[in-house]
Task: inverse folding
């Protein structure tokens, strides 16, 4: 059992109506989600947030007070600020953009940049707008601190939905490929879609098949539709592309 699971289990055994217990549980789940990229933590956090019934302000207030009280422990202080930003602006929609930026400015620990900017990527995906390009640029800078396939996939998907130039397309392909190399099945699906849209059905077939091998069954019908369109020679070429990728 991971450390976050043990902590969450202990916190969850108390009175679930007690704010502090709920906060501890949420923090444990968030650490599992953002730092360990743990899928079970993500599901549990999502379920808990749905049933919170307006406790968001309690959680945000506690995190902010905890950050202010930790003047002598900058690591704990910044962790609380990061979580406050993620909860308050990203998950709960309490903070506005100005408050979120103010919170972000106080975070200097580079190890926290990944989780914070991961949240920004989620927000950008939901509400893409030109006014957030500055945030996106900062977010791209954060990749030097947190080289995560989840982050790269989010960036690729954001660029895919906001393509304005060939440069954007090349960036999108680059981020998606980096995520795919690290085993991100949705990134493989995105690459398949990009190549299919460009008429490169051999590459599209290969990426859809790789996505299936990584557990993404949702693309099987797309893969089968391309299977019928490939010639024998193209199929051989596509299989070579798959073998080359899987051997790296």
Result:
């Amino acid at each position: 059992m991971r450390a976050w699971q043990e902590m969450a289990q202990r916190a969850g055994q108390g009175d679930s109506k007690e704010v502090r217990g709920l906060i501890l549980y949420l923090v444990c789940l968030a650490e599992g989600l953002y730092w360990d990229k743990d899928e079970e933590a993500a599901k549990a956090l999502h379920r808990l947030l749905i049933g919170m019934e307006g406790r968001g302000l309690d959680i945000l207030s506690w995190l902010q007070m905890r950050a202010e009280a930790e003047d002598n422990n900058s690591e704990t202080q910044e962790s609380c600020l990061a979580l406050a930003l993620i909860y308050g602006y990203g998950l709960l929609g309490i903070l506005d953009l100005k408050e979120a930026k103010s919170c972000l400015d106080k975070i200097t620990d580079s190890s926290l940049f990944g989780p914070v900017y991961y949240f920004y990527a989620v927000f950008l995906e939901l509400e893409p707008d030109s006014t957030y390009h500055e945030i996106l640029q900062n977010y791209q800078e954060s990749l030097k601190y947190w080289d995560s396939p989840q982050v790269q996939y989010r960036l690729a998907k954001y660029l895919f939905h906001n393509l304005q130039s060939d440069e954007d397309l090349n960036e999108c392909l680059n981020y998606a490929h980096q995520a795919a190399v690290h085993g991100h099945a949705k990134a493989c699906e995105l690459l398949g879609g990009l190549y299919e849209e460009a008429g490169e059905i051999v590459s599209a077939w290969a990426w859809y098949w790789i996505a299936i091998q990584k557990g993404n069954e949702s693309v099987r019908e797309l893969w089968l539709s391309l299977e019928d369109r490939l010639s024998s020679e193209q199929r051989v070429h596509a299989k070579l592309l798959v073998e080359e990728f899987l051997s790296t």
Residues 110-182 form one domain. The radius of gyration is 21 Å.
